[in-house]
Structures are given as C-alpha cells and as structure tokens.
Input
Amino acid sequence: MDITLPPRISSSGKPTETLKIGAGERRLIVIGANGAGKTRFTARIVADLKARSLCLSALAGIYKPCPPEREPAPSSLESRLAPEVCADQFRRGNSTELDLLLAQLLHDEMSNLMAYKMVRADHPDAELRPTRLDRVIELWREVFPNNRVLLESGKILFGRGLDNDTYPAIRLSDGERAVLYYSGAILYAPSKAVVFVDSPEMFLHPTVAISLWNRLEMMRPDCTFCYTTHDTEFASSRTGAPVIWVRDFSPSAKAWDYEILPMQTGIPQELYMALVGSRKPILFIEGDGRRSIDGRLYPLIFPDFTVTSLGSCNKVIEATRTFRDLSALHKMDSFGIVDRDRRDDHEVAYLRGKNVMVPDVAEIENMLMLEDVVRAMARAAGKDDSRVFAKVRKAIVAQFKADLHQQALLHTRHRVKRTLEYRADARFGSIGELEAHLTELIAELDARKLYENICRRFNDLVNSSDYNGILKVYNQKSMLATSNVAPLCGFKNRDEYIDGIIRLLRSRQAEAANIRIAVRRCLGLPEQ
Output
C-alpha cells in the first residue's frame, strides 16, 4: 500500500512524500502534541483516498448521533451500511454509529437466514454460512470470556457468566461498547482499505486495547491500519509500524511540519514517541519518577521542561547523547542531570560539555541540605534560620569527620577504577604488552598516595568547616536523618522534611523561589 502524505512545510523535506507500507506490516502510527494538527493531517490523507478508507472513533461512534438529513462521507461507517437500514433506524430516534451498526448486523443475520431457507428447499445438505455477527460474537467471547451474546426476538442481548439476566447494548460499559463497535465496524471496511482509527485505546485497558487490535488486524489482513494516538504504550505495540510525528500545521499554507521517525534511535521507541509528542525541551534525570527525590524535585524546578526519569546515570547520559544526535530531526533541546557522586573535575567538565548537568553536591539528598534550602525551610516554619543552619552545619561537619577515612577510601577506589577503565582500554599486540602496561599502570596509580592526598584534602574541609565543600564530596544518604535538619525545621522526620520542600515548591510563597534559585545555582545555571 502506497500512501501519499500531505504537503510538508519543513525545509528539510519534499513538498509531498509517498510512504510505502510493507505488505507484512500494514500499520501506520501518527503522533503529536495537542493542537499540532494530527486530525487535519489524517483527514487530508482520507480526502485523497475517499471511498478506499474508513474512519473510526469509539468516542464519536458511541456518543455522537448521526444527522439523518445529510449525505454521509465516503469514509464514514454509515456509508458502508445499507441506506434502508439506516433510514429505518433514524425513524426510531437519534442513532449513533453503534446503533446503525447493530441494526445492520441484525439485518445481515436475517437476510442470511432467509437465503439459507430458500437454498435448503432445493439443497437439503446446504450449510448455514457464518455471518459478520458470528465473527463479532466470536471475538467478543475471546476478549470477554465470561460474557455471553444472545439473539432474542430480533435483538442482540448480553449477559455475564451463569447469570440469567440479559440486557441490551445500552447497558454495556464504555469499554465493552468500544469493543463491540470496533469489532463490527472493521468487518464493513472496503476491501484493501486504509482504516483510520482515532485514539484506538480510548475506554480500554491497555492490555485489552493491544490484544483487541491485534485480533482486529488479523480479521482484516487485507487492510492497512492508521492509528492516531497519544498512548505511547499502544503505539510501541504496533511493532514495525512507521511513525509520523506531526509537529505543526500552517492554515495559510495548508501544509504540515512533520517527520517520519527513525525505527532505531538508541532510546526505547515508546519513550522516544512520548518525548517528541511534547513541545517542551527534554530533561532526562536519574531515579524513579514516582518515588525518587529526583522525580519529585526537578519537575518543580524546571516546569518548562518535559522531565523524564530513566533510572541510572548511564541511561541519562546515553539518552541525552542520542536525543541530541537526532536534534536535526526533532528540533528539540535536550539535557540531562546526574549526581556528582565521586566524579573529579575532569569527568564533570566532560559531561557538562555533553549537555549533562552535574551539581556541585555529591548526590540529590545533598541538594536538600544546601544552606539556602535549609534556611528557606526554617524561615517558612517560623524558625530562626541562622540558628537552625548553624546546628545543621555543625552536625554535618562532625558526621563527615567521623566518616572521613571511609569516604576517602571510596573516592580512591572510584579514581582507581576510572583510571583503569580509561588506560587499560588501549590496543596491544600481545598478552605480554598488556601485562607490562598493567604493571606500569598499577605502579603509576599508587593507590596509597592517592588515598593519603584525599584524606589531607578532606581534613582541610573539616578544619575549615567548609560546608559546601563537604556537600560536594560527601556521599551519605543518611545525612538528612542524622543531621536533625527535619526536627530543627519543624518536621517529624526525613520524609516529612522532603514532603515539606515539595509542598513549598508547589506554592507561591517567596521561599519557594529561594529554593529554586539555590538548586539552579548548584547546577551551574542562571537564577532566572
């Protein structure tokens, strides 16, 4: 199937483009932000295909009455149904596409039975042919194994399990009616048509939506399915389908800014589609978006970004690199934030050069211990911020002094590990050359000397009570609890202190602005 795409306003593309849909993968995905012009985009393709297309929408099909006086569009479901069936249904009152569809299924069922009786008069061995309704009932039972479909007195009724109670389609849930609508409508699509489905996941549980459309595609292997969706989980389930990202529409030019996304990006396809579906710049962060401090804090610090949690620092670094490599395609800025941990200045400078921000504190917990953050939380609670911070500072310096040798050892191990990774990666002609290189490298590293130098530097931080310097090198997640910052600021414990910061950032209080400034400054960004 060849589909001619609408006019393009992007300078990088041709005025129009023909997309070839492979015979083995008759699928197409259209994504884009709200208001980008996706509906107009697909409508333009439909206008070119005319009667070789069928447009389906569960929302419209279930709830929007069809005006009986107007001529149905060639791509509508109504145009595929018998006019006399539709006219009879309209006489009964306001009718949706689902009402017309059920009437048509019953009409076809009765016509099939009449034809069978007439043939049987001359051919007693003739078999009753399966109908579209039979196929709908079969699919219904696959999707809802405990539900029943019955034909009684010329009506389609439904039931659950062994319960004798039956009821009409109007009493089905929205999800059940969506399944009924799609499973029946798809059987009336023209041969080798392009079926356009708007929000195929609407009203449906994600697993039901994916399973349903897999079955419907198998029911009509001759058709091409074009899905317009915001659901990236569903979109990514259409394996191998070309993905068209609609960025914008120009009413004056009657053209669109769109791109066909590459199949392999180095980022999971579902994540990539989710990100390009937003118009905001992208910020990749560590942690879990729902539970981690990163996922709760950074969206409130950077409200103008689409903040996406990826888990590990390596994933953040790789996603930022990959997304920026594709910037010519999606034209969106992307950045990352990773914890400093035990990285030295060289590593930090390298990452910042790759648009990965590294804070001037060791990890995200330390961000909440910044002097300006502690003072802001104390003032918000009506406390003496100078007194509170003095006690917190004293506690952190004492805690770091107690952990100094352990922390120095961790920093030494990290430095040795990174040096070995960089230096042992060279090419060697023989095992002997590698052995000689490693022997020299171990001698050159001199781990004890490195450890002693780090200890001296850490002792200087303690002796000068360099609070910011300690936060920069001290990896200790328990410091929020052991520093007593929570009770000093009027909170019961560490978790309530964190929740208090999040609540404050969601408010319009002046102290929220002070916290944002402190965090941005820690990341080396302008205060705004």
In short: The radius of gyration is 32 Å. The mean pLDDT is 86. The first strand starts at residue 2 and ends at 5. The chain is about 50% helix and 15% strand.
